[in-house]
Write a structure and sequence with these properties.
9 helices; alpha/beta; four-stranded antiparallel β-sheet; about 250 residues; six-stranded mixed β-sheet
Amino acid sequence: MIEIRGLRKSFGGLEVLRGADLDVADGEVLTLIGRSGCGKTTLLRCIDFLEEYDAGEIRLDGELLWYAKAPDGSQRRLAEPVIRRMRQRMGIVFQQYNLFPHMTALENVCLGPEFSQNVPLREIEEQGRALLARVGLAEKASAYPFQLSGGQQQRVAIARALAMRPKVLLLDEITSALDPELVAEVEDVIRSLLSEGIMMVLVTHAIGFAREISNRIAYVSEGRIAEIGRPAEVLDRPQDPTLTEFLRRIR
């Protein structure tokens, strides 16, 4: 389980997260929705500690992440080797694929395990090929990113995240940079993961897709979780008036 309590994050004088609280159960798929700038992506990046936050705490399976708490309640950033170890339990996929352009698809997928897992390179490459096959790209192992479509690059990015065998998969607007005809192939990969019980937290504006795959949907407004519940509850019977207006505008 992920437990987030009182998370706060500011950029200069702008407070983006204002005491966000959230729980995500083991094996759950939770989708964050809300207007642009409401704090969805910042929350996701704080979970993976790509953004350091100003206050609050994040726990995974009861373990306090990223910071050590002093007796006076203050927090001290953990040493980098400890942070790297913790981050290995999470995989993140970005809106822009962030593949290394000078590496093949297989090399991109194998890079993380090669540096963090004490196993023979041949075994890592076998796992990498299996993951590329899993996302429908077995024949593209030797291709470089410039030789792949946007949808194919995003599927390589998903395979790369899965190569670390994460407990949590974080997905940040992974189809928003794709042409409409390529969205379906990436969404199909995510659907294929549902039976494997990987905890997923995703940010998306694709409300239909969120309804289909999510156990729960959380509406983020002004840096807090304003409403959360099953898809039918949040999308069909919203209680927050700003959520009602948000859904009206995007439908």
